[in-house]
Amino acid sequence: MSEEFKVEIVNPEKSFLSKEDVTEVVVPAFEGEMGILKDHISIISFLKPGIITIHSKSGEEKFYVEDGIVEFKNNNLSILTSSIFNLNEVEKNKLQNLLKLAEEEASKSEVNDQTKYLVDQKIEVLRSLN
Amino acid sequence: MASLDDLKKRIASVKSTQKITKAMKMVAAAKLRKAQESAEKGRPYSEKMNNIILNLSNGISDKENTSKLLSGTGNDKVHLCVVMTSDRGLCGGFNSNIIKKAKSYFSKISAEGKEFKIITVGSKGNNQLKRVYGEKIIENISFKESKNANYFDADKVGKMVIEKFEAGEFDVCTIFYNQFKNVITQIPQAQQIVPLNNEEDENNSDESYEFEPDEDEILSNLLPKNISTQIFKAMLENSASEQGSRMSAMDNATRNAGEMVDKLTIEYNRSRQAAITKELIEIISGAESL
Predict the structure, then answer these.
(1) Interface contact B232-A12, CB threshold 8 A
(2) Does CATH place domain B34-246 in 3.40.1380.10?
(3) Is B91 among the catalytic positions?
(4) Of A11-20, A83-92, B226-235, B275-284, which has the strongest mean pLDDT?
(5) Out of A86-95, A114-123, B159-168, B195-204, which region has the weakest mean confidence (pLDDT)?
(6) Where does chain B hold its CATH 1.10.287.80 domain(s)?
(7) Which chain A positions have a beta carbon within 8 Å of B44's beta carbon?
(8) Four-residue CA torsion sign, B109, B164, B212, A44
């Protein structure tokens, strides 16, 4: 029996990525990293800034996301996100810009706890990438 | 009858107008292809988003305590209307159709004794509405500097709507835009986004989901995003409709200009001939009298 399932990443502009031969996906869910294999229970969760790793026959791909929602149902994984970058293709200075933006946001005082948490996460992930 | 010189000038001016409309049609056609493509590409996102929210709201046990964006404030007094139009004119009935739709909605609401507020997106709608409903317009946004509809702009509008909702400024929010069907048909739409009404309540919720974190938290995170998504979808549809509408309007204009040139040319030739005949008669009758 094959251990593969389908993953689809969509952003508001277009369908970002669609793959049929995926064996495992690791997503940065809100309450911690979550690995999804075939026949996972149906789940809806949302993402915090982090790295999505997709393992497939053709190798491993990594994406940086800032937010999003994941839905897994009937071996279909849908990831909806408004900002996603393929780490193999994105340029270094783009990530640095994102980091700068995040740091600016963090320095503002009037943010609430949740946004603060998310921004801190973002900075941490981006620092590790740069 | 106009003199020959005048006719000549008119023909030249109509011809140059025709050149302009033809060029505009061409530009619109090129832009339309792009806009249509991005409208189609944008659909999966909003559809998926809708699906997830549907599943979530089905799975929610405590209907009373859910986010107000889903269930509404319980009142139905103040309506917020987001009227989305283009920033540029010369696109046929595109803007007037949206305005017409919006105006009929306004008068319906006033007839029911409710209040309404308006946010206009795009300068053309603002120009048309501010004469009659000037004091109702609370906000006017236009994205003249952005070339294509992008999510960032939509998010700005969405955040504004949510801000106003949380401040209790309105109970119901409706967006007005043109849905793109094909180049000649665009359907003006009024879509209610707050509170979300899921009329198509299919009961396919026998599949139970696991939620992480719990439903309420996901919903309260998701619903604001959904508003931006719906607005973005409307923007995409709008930009495709705008180009389509402009294309057919300019096509018509080009054809009309062609007809006019034909008519004027005939008139020009006739009067030229008449002048020649007149001269000949004068010469002949002059020779006869000698």
Answers:
(1) yes
(2) yes
(3) yes
(4) B275-284
(5) B195-204
(6) 4-21+250-288
(7) 8, 10, 15
(8) positive
CB pairs under 8 A between A and B: 73
DSSP assignment of B204-268 equals -TTSPPEEES-HHHHHHHHHHHHHHHHHHHHHHHHHHHHHHHHHHHHHHHHHHHHHHHHHHHHHH
The rounded percent of chain B whose pLDDT value lies above 90 is 39
Tell me the domains of chain A and their CATH numbers: 5-86 (2.60.15.10), 92-129 (no CATH)
- Contact assessment for residue A16 and residue A84, using Cβ atoms and an 8 Å cutoff: yes
Q: How far apart are CA B63 and CA B57, in angstroms?
A: 8
Supply the pTM of this predicted model. 0.84
E strands, A30-126, in order: 32-36, 43-47, 50-56, 59-65, 68-73, 76-80, 84-86
Contact A34 B212 (CB under 8 A): yes
Query: How confident is the model at residue A120, as a pLDDT?
Result: 81
Which chain B residues contact residue A82 at CB under 8 A?
151, 155, 225
**Tokens read off for B257:** 């200009």
Check CB contact under 8 Å for B208 and A42: yes
Q: Which candidate in B69, B80, B91, B196 is catalytic? A: B91
pLDDT tens readout for residues A28-82: 888 888 899 988 888 888 888 888 999 988 888 889 888 888 988 888 899 988 8
Residues of A in contact with B55 (CB under 8 A): 44, 71
**What does the pLDDT look like over B133-188, one tens digit per residue?**
888 888 888 888 777 778 888 888 988 998 898 888 888 899 999 998 888 889 99
| Contact check, Cβ <8 Å, B218/A43 | no
Q: Which fold has domain B4-21+250-288?
A: Helix Hairpins (1.10.287)
